[in-house]
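Now for one protein, fold included:
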Amino acid sequence: MDARGFTLIELAVVIVIISLLMLVLFKGSALIGTGQSQQVLAAVKDLGAGVAQFRSTYRYLPGDMPDAATRLPGVAVCNPVGAPTTANGDGNGRVDAVEVQCVTEHLFRAGIIKSNAPITFSTTKGIVTLRVIARSASTLAGSFPSSTRNVIEVATVPCQIAQDLDAKTDDGNFSTGNTRASVASCTVDGANDPVPLMALGL
C-alpha cells in the first residue's frame, strides 16, 4: 500500500474536475429555468392571441359567448356554477368567474387550441396555471385601470419565470404597466418564490 498521499498536481486536477462538474450542474439548472420561462411565456402569448382570434371571429370572448351551444359544434356543458348549467356565457364583454371554465372549451371547439383541459405547466416550484378572467373578478382587480376588462391570470409562478414574464411582456415592474403581480418583488428561493399570482391585461 502506497502511503505517500496526493501530490499538488493531483489535488489541482481533482479541484478542476469538481469545479467543472459544479459548472455543468449550475448551467443545466439555469437552462431548465430558461426553458420553463420560455414555455410559460409562449403559452401566455398564445392564449392572448387565441382570445383575440376568437373575439375577431365570433364577436365575443371565449367563455362569454351567449350562443356557444348553437355556434360551436360539439361544445360541452362547461359552466357548472351557472343556473341552469350551460355551455353559454352571458355576452356582457367580461369573462365572469362562472364563465372561466368555458374559456378553454370554447377555444377548443373553435379549433384555436388543441385541448379543452385547463392550461397548466409543471415547474421546479410547482404547477403554474393559466386562466382568462374578468378583471373585476380577479384578486388583482384593484391594481388595473377600469378600462382593462379582462386579464390572463398566471398562478404559482416561480420567481425567475415571473421576472422574465414581466420583463418580456411589459415594463419589468410587478406594480405597474399591463402585467401586475400579487407581490411587489421576489427573489429566487426567497419568501415570495413562487409568486402567488400574476395578471396580464387583455
Summary: The CA atoms of residues 103 and 195 lie 24 Å apart. Residues 68-109 form one domain.
